[in-house]
Amino acid sequence: MHWTKIHADWWCNEFGDDIYRYEILDDEDRCQVEYHIHRAGERLPWNGKTLTLAEAQCQLQHSHDALTT
User: What's the domain of life for this entry (predicted)?
Assistant: First the structure.
């Protein structure tokens, strides 16, 4: 799976899946980073979230692997 960085907070792969990076303030005003996953063709605004880009990419890879086996 090949990922293209569209801009600082957005990645897309050849299947049209997207990963968006969000910075969210917690209850103590500390910045926490989340990566929201959107699978191509889904109507939901996002299908999952992780704390690292690598985890997000891995989840989408596993999703595609499950569809092709």
Answer: Bacteria
